[in-house]
Amino acid sequence: MANSLFVLRVCLVAALGGLLFGYDTAVIAGAIGFLQARFDLSPTMVGWVASSAIWGCVAGVAFAGYLSDQFGRKKALLLTAFLFTISGIATALPNSLSLFILARFVGGLAIGAASMLSPLYIAEIAPPHIRGRLVTLYQLAIVIGINLIYYVNMQIAAMGDQAWNTQTGWRIMLGSETIPAILFGILLFFVPESPRWLIKQGKIGQALDILKAVNGTQQAESIREQIRESLEKKTGTFSDLFAPGLRKALSIGVVLALFSQITGINAIIYFAPEIFKRIGFSADSAFMQTFLIGIINTIFTIVALWLVDWQGRRKLLLWGVAGMTICLGVVGYCFYFSLLSGPWLLIAILAYIACFASSLGPIPWIIISEIFPTQTRGVAMSVATGMVWVGVLLITQFTPILLDSVGGAYLFWIFMGNSIVLFLFTLKNIPETKNLTLEEIEQQWK
């Protein structure tokens, strides 16, 4: 029990990177209307303001792997907490739009870095039999962060009228991020370094102490020896990722990361308020709409947390993606036949959220953090996780274009086609990794 509580505390601290990921990503949704009024933004500039953090994410994930391999997972996470804090302060202060966009870019650097560092750290420190659940805490933290900032934004907006929010409210919304960011930074001083990184640096004694605290004395020596043998066989260069065995691992990571974004989740969330309005919700009930989606997202992420180390990653992913495929087909059907006010569209959207939250939401983070060798895990996760943000940019760029050119029905059927491709790829290529040490998973690529 003592070991379990220690591991849980450490992983909850690392998962705060996910909470800040969700918080920082979603904070702009509540502030953008007031920013538009404050800076008199054109539609093009609204797009730049909204997407400036995404470009930072691409850059952040690119450097995070190198930093974590060179200086350690813990120090890289501390840098991430610092960047979140700087972004929160800097976005709350400027009277210049260019400075605001720069501050949002810095926030994006932190989001991108956290998106690979937090699951990386959790996977490297967690015992094999509960590793899936502990990495799922990261996805749960993202969802909680999104829901939390929706609530915070609503409370801040209610503090004043439109004029007050245009001058002051948005600053408090964006500045509120500094509170969890500072907490994250402080708590990181009380967690250990990754034992796998320590062994890579030759600090065997420190690593063994941590492995004993996590796995117990009996298993610690065996795991240490597995890690040592794994590190002896790899040079740790970027070219190792394209060796015959690891090439498959890299393809799995890249496909999972990319398809987690191009199978409809962002479009579903984008369309949800308009669909709810057509069904009969008032225009003023936006919070209830996002709250409903947030509750379902949270509940089914918890379901995934419960199932992932019992049923396994592969089975959960196959069932979830199959459910998403059916739901996307129904959504496309409803758009095609203009059935936007009946119950089936609402049911399909909520069921899609449930399927995504219990599978394609958390599973990619788990598998990407498990499948690469310790020597190359940092840079490999940077490459794979970077595809998440490439997917976000593709969806941001092409969803409006496809919506205008082919319409809502065919847009969702395209997403359905992507889901079918992912299902078949999973069926053929993705092995089960539950209950295996990271070094045992590595052996599957040989």
Strand content: under 5%
What is the CA-based Rg, rounded?
22 Å
How many helical stretches?
18
Output the CATH class name of the largest domain: Mainly Alpha
General form: globular
CATH superfamily annotation of the largest domain: MFS general substrate transporter like domains
List keywords for this structure.
Growth Hormone, Chain: A; 446 residues; cell membrane; 2 domains; mainly alpha; single chain
Give the SSE layout:
Elements lengths: L1 H38 L3 H29 L1 H20 L4 H29 L5 H27 L4 H14 L2 H11 L6 H6 L3 H12 L1 H16 L11 H16 L5 H15 L6 H22 L5 H24 L6 H15 L5 H8 L6 H53 L8 H6 L3
Give an overview in words.
The longest helix is centred in the C-terminal third of the chain and has 53 residues, at about 375-430. The radius of gyration is 22 Å and the shape is globular. Helices cover about 80% and strands about 0% of the residues. About 50% of the residues are buried. The chain has helices at about 1-40, 45-70, 75-90, 95-125, 130-155, 160-175, 180-190, 195-200, 205-215, 215-230, 245-260, 265-280, 285-305, 315-335, 345-355, 365-370, 375-430, 440-445.
Summarize the model shown:
With 446 residues, this protein is mostly helical. Helices cover 81% and strands 0% of the residues.
